[in-house]
Amino acid sequence: MVYVGETSRSLKERAKEHEADVRLRKEKPISEHFNGAGHRVQDMGHMTLSKHDVNNECNVFLQKPY
Predict the structure, then answer these.
(1) Confidence (pLDDT) at 59
(2) CA 59, CA 66: separation in Å to the nearest integer?
(3) Are 4 and 63 in contact (CB under 8 A)?
């Protein structure tokens, strides 16, 4: 899965939030994916491919292919 987005928090902190959403079965896209596709929270992995200081217009451009 590819995630492109922005956050003011660290990747580690954001990843923990995603993992909690999955465990608590929150109505969020990542939770629905991992709880509905035969995955487990242990199947999740995270890595930073690129980090940019960008404005909203540039972020929309980076997110568009996904």
Answers:
(1) 61
(2) 12
(3) yes
DSSP letters of 1-65?
-------SS-HHHHHHHHHHHHHTT-SSHHHHHHHHTT--GGG-----S------HHHHHHHHTT
Q: What is the pTM (predicted TM-score) of this model?
A: 0.61
Structure tokens at 38: 């035969």
Please check whether residue 30 is in contact with residue 22, taking contact to mean a CB–CB distance below 8 angstroms: yes
Low-confidence ranges of the chain (pLDDT < 70): 1-6, 52-66
DSSP assignment letter at 66: -
Q: Can you tell me the distance from the alpha carbon of 3 to that of 48, in angstroms, rounded to the nearest whole number?
A: 10
Please tell me the distance from the alpha carbon of residue 2 to that of residue 45, in angstroms, as a whole number. Answer: 11
